[in-house]
Design a protein that fits this description.
The complex is a heterodimer of chains A (about 450) and B (about 675).
Chain A lengths: L4 H28 L10 H55 L6 H22 L20 E4 L2 E4 L7 E3 L5 E3 L4 H5 L24 E5 L11 E4 L20 E9 L8 E8 L6 E3 L11 E4 L2 E4 L20 E6 L4 H13 L7 H54 L3 H26 L9
Helix pairs in contact in A: 1-7, 2-3, 2-6, 3-5, 5-6
Chain B lengths: L1 H26 L9 E7 L3 E3 L2 E3 L3 E8 L3 H32 L5 H17 L4 H63 L6 H17 L2 E5 L5 E5 L3 E5 L2 E2 L2 E5 L7 E6 L5 E3 L8 H36 L14 E2 L11 E5 L10 E6 L2 E6 L5 E3 L6 E4 L2 E5 L11 E3 L5 H4 L1 E2 L13 E4 L9 E9 L17 E6 L2 E3 L5 E8 L4 E4 L9 E3 L2 H4 L3 E6 L5 E7 L6 E7 L8 H8 L6 E3 L5 E3 L1 H41 L3 H35 L2
Antiparallel strand pairs in B: 1-4, 2-3, 5-6, 6-7, 7-8, 9-10, 10-11, 12-20, 13-18, 14-15, 14-19, 15-16, 17-18, 21-30, 22-29, 23-24, 23-30, 24-27, 25-26, 25-28, 28-29, 31-32
Classes of the chains: A alpha+beta (about 450), B alpha+beta (about 675).
Chain lengths: ~450, ~675
Amino acid sequence: MRISTSMIYQKGLQSIQQQTADMVRTQQQVSTGRRILTPADDPIAAARALELGQSKAVNTQFGLNLGYADDNLKLLESKLVGVGDILQYTRERAVQAGNGAMSDEDLRYIATDLKSQFDAMLSLANSQNGQGEYVFSGYKAGVKPFDGGMTGITYAGDQGGRTIQVSASRFMPVSLAGDQVFDRTRIIDVNATRTPTDEKPTTNDALYSFKGNNNQGTGGAPLVHFGDTTLPPDDPDSPRNPDNQGRRYIIAYRETTPGDPATGAYSIEEVLPGDGGRVPVPGAVGLVPGTTHSFNGIEIELPAHVPATNPEDPGSIEDGDNFEVMVASSNMFTNYALAVTAFDDHTGVGPAGGVAFALENLDFAIENVLKFRAQIGSQMVETEQLQNLGDDLDLQYATAISRLEDVDYAKAITDLTRQQTFLQAAQQSFMRVTGLSLFNFLN
Amino acid sequence: MAGMLNIGLTGLNAAQLQLNTTSHNISNAGTVGYSRQTVSQTTNVPQFSGAGFFGQGTRIASVTREYSQFLENQVLSADNRRSEYAAYGAQIAQINNLLADPTVGLSPAVQEFFAGVQEVSANPASVPARQSLISAAQALASRFNVMDARLNEIRDGVEGEIEATVASINLYARELAEINQRIVVAQAAGAGLPANDLLDQRNVLLSELNKLVKTTAIEERDGQLNVFIGSGQPLVLGQTVSTLTTITSSTDPTRQAIAMQTPGGGVVTLPERLLTGGQLGGLLSFRRDSLDQAQNQLGLLALSLATEFNRVHELGVDLDNMLGGPFFRLPGVVTRPDQGLTVEISSISELTGADYEIRETGGGFELVNLASGRRENLAGTPPAIDLEGLSITLDDPLPAGLEFPILIQPTRFAARDIGVAINDPRKVAAGSPVTVNTPVTNTGTGEIGSILVNNVAGIASDPVLRLPDFANFAVEYDSGEINVPAGYQIERVHFDTSSGQWVTDTNYASGGTATEYSPASDSAGARFRLTGPGGYEFDFELSGSPKDEDVFRFGPSEAGIADNRNAARLGALQTDKTMFASSGGAPTATFQSVYSQLVSKVGNKTREVQAGEKAQETLLRQASDARDALSGVNLDEEAANLIRFQQAYQASARVMSIAQRLFDEVVSLGR
């Protein structure tokens, strides 16, 4: 084949340029540490690396969210532990109060102690987190959830629960509404019935009836039912109306002429929680024994007066006898206040009623708190597992991206050395070949 | 003697001309497009004498250049394709670098934005978290704007290059016509012998023109060259030149089209598909295939993200308990006022990002997807169509003087126009307008959760204040049925995997006032859809075991600053599939996977073009080598020729001096 002179120069130059371009590219790879300088270098790997990068970033975000969730859960846990501790302490004190050897003054000390425990529990329920938001207010985090004191508690928050997305499909609840923990410690089901016993002569678990410690008569406590359960909850006479729950009544039997049963009548007073003030129930004066009186959603069968000498009588009623009826509430604070007031106000009935009421309802409250602690505990286990999983995934993503994008330094440096050698060879051979010409020999 | 002197003279002349040509070759060894010339000698007419024919020396027959039209054509066609790839590759490399850069690409901005949303979801009451979300959103919007502006810069560059290329084509055409004239004159004067150097120069002009656009050249008998481009449009006919110009395209005023001026003075637009090859073809196909697509896809992403985010944002309430407004500012599809139609987006998941045209067809109108070629007719009065996520309605009556086809670019300008519509952190709608209250008087364990609002029509009575104030109402469970008050509708829904939506359950009648919930089988959770008076609608999930007469009260949210339900929903948009619906209607792609597809498409195209360019370069080199093997000058060969013809000259001079001596001999005879 015939070679033209320009072909010799062009070919030599082209190969030198090609070698130079390759060498410069390898040098760029080495200096940036990336095998893929632009997506065109390896479109498949570049697209894959982009997607992996996005997945890695989403994974990191979920890791952050897990941290937030964990913080919230830990805060809830610590508050619930505090509440549980107070309830447990109260229970022990209640058992102590039930000891018959306690004097009035001892009972008053216990009552004072428990009153300050009530305040402590209230302040736990109103606690705030690091940003000043109330923990137990549901969605209304700027509003103090529980307002009031021993005389009555209102809940100003709502029932909202916050969730945080901790994985593509899992939204983890990270808050508890105050009324879940404190307001629903027990379900008051007015339709449930039970067989009345001597210790608890009521037809429903939420009703309590006790006879006074200082009673002269031998008769037992009156039988108590719920009233008309078909009434809707907003009816003032409905047993389902929350206003009719969480109340304590003293039923007193007095004979205007002591010793004359014909002059005996019952009167019913309500004991207000907190200060222990007594308020007569409207229309509950001069009630005839043996009748049933309905008021505020409950019915009380007032024990009939029977002479002490009647052997068939289960018990007798004497002038000055007192009985105590309590209606439990689903609200922990209300039940607590009722129990503490009962300890404080023992002149009429004695602490036995308050103690029995307190023990049963404190158990409900403790169980409710434990239920939530268990739920939070298992969620915290879940966050830890998700955190571990997320860390593993992060490592996998990083490894995969590095495998796709990063340059293999050993290979790149070897290539660089090789290309340098080739370039030098090309340059030197070019000089040799172009130096050969017949004109050198023409004189 | 006289004969010998003459013969020597002819030899001398011939050798001298040979030496001339050889030195011409040597001095033009580096000239571009030069074909080496060779001289062919032939004998003079012999003289007849009685003893035979006596030769009369030599003469030069012709000077020819070593040239093969076939080899030259191969070089031209390889060069033409190479420069097409080179032009395409240079442009697309700019987009390639723009999209995938890990710091200035779109991915980091989208991730930062959604990180901001998650921050608000975790701390909905925190004003700084909301402010950082707004800042991240502004960064995202401006990243879209910047990328679109850069693509527009590339577009302006391409338009400028197209104009410059057309100007160059015109320049070469004029020079070709001029050289045609000189060749005709030279060859007419020279008795039809080829004007070698002029022909070489013309070849150079033709190969330069060929780099710009694909040409077909036909040589006439008188030596003139006619050049045609496209599908046979004449560029140069002998000495007449047709001028190419760039005019504003009739369908899209933002781009240039190529047109040719006819001799009559009119202007005829040349369809782009005819102008292939060369730099012009490369630029035109880049603009049509890659640049338009990239800008459309980017706009599609911006449009979908903004529209979907706005839709969910408007279903929530902000810190002041007002219904959320639009979060992103995105004007609708841009149409010129005189185009006589309105375009709306009816479904994000069905958008394809292609451009469309409305064309007239016998009696009606049809919509054509320019990328896939799909055609559908418009129907109704006024003519309208809902296709691929677009709802198009023509004006009734159509404006006078309306020209068809009308170009519709639904997503082209979205990335340019996207912005953030709110700057008050309190206006971020993180909460949900509906809350549920389970009264403590309920005796069962039924719970309502996962409230998802679908429609807020009628939720707020005052359209200016937009405070949700719909009436509280109660949903009651009784004996296995869910009851709602009159005026409300409730129906059970289930998840349909083929369409990706929650749809009403066919087993349960819709409307009316009752639907079933069985605590035995549904206690893990059953979903219901409730529609209220005024049109608002939301889904909720009932789980647990409610007892008879348990009620659940729904009402508007009040002052719930820690309510993050809508923020959680907004955050889930990052991983939800919302785009590119399959045939069943279920979306198949998330926002980030759409962006990955775009990057991958551009990267693949760049690679393809780069590979094509390398292949064509190799072909070009091979063709050039073949041509140079014939036409190129080899200096060693010319050096050998110099020696040869120098000796021939010396020999002929020697012949002449011998002839002179013979003459002297004859003259000295007489003394």
